[in-house]
């Protein structure tokens, strides 16, 4: 921001509300815009030669979060039809990013997991995304960062406690793909 730019209003003002949920949502929207500007630039240049669609990226992240996951469950999580999901899976399996095997409890059903190559692929993308956060947050005073970390950890703990959206940890390197 140059000295000619008007100062950015506190995000709570943008919410125009006394509701703490709306105020935090406005703050998160403003923070997301700052970070996503950096992130999209990095991801766009990184993904150009990879021929990966947004839906395929979403599927990879959902499979990692919920593996082993059925084809039907993946279709529901991604929000596309079963035939479209089957085609998407075929492409990702063909590229070596995903693995598919029979469900031992129901041989008619297929279960999906990321392959080692798929895990590495997402790891590289996440490093790019984290780089965008580092660029934005690298300009912030350490005491502000510590206060934000404390507040975000408290927020995550309450959200997890309320079971609104349990945190899904990425698999550790010792975890075997299907």
From TrEMBL:
Residues 21-161 form the HTH marR-type domain. The keyword 4Fe-4S does not apply. It comes from the Bacteria. InterPro entries: HTH_MarR-typ, MarR/SlyA-like, WH-like_DNA-bd_sf, WH_DNA-bd_sf. GO terms for molecular function: DNA binding; DNA-binding transcription factor activity. Keywords: DNA-binding. It holds the Pfam family MarR. Transmembrane segments: none annotated. GO terms for biological process: response to stress. The keyword Magnesium does not apply. This is MarR family transcriptional regulator.
């Amino acid at each position: 921001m140059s000295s000619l730019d008007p100062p950015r209003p506190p995000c709570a003002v943008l919410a125009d509300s006394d509701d703490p949920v709306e105020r935090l949502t406005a703050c998160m929207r403003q923070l997301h815009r700052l970070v996503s500007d950096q992130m999209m630039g990095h991801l766009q240049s990184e993904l150009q030669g990879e021929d990966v669609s947004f839906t395929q990226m979403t599927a990879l992240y959902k499979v990692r979060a919920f593996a082993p996951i059925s084809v039907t469950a993946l279709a529901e999580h991604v929000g596309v039809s079963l035939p479209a999901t089957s085609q998407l899976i075929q492409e990702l399996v063909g590229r070596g990013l995903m693995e598919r095997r029979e469900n031992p409890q129901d041989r008619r059903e297929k279960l999906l997991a990321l392959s080692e190559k798929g895990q590495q692929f997402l790891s590289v993308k996440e490093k790019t995304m984290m780089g965008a956060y580092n660029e934005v947050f690298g300009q912030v005073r350490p005491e502000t960062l510590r206060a934000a970390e404390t507040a975000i950890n408290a927020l995550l703990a309450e959200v997890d406690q309320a079971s609104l959206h349990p945190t899904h940890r990425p698999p550790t390197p010792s975890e075997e793909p299907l």
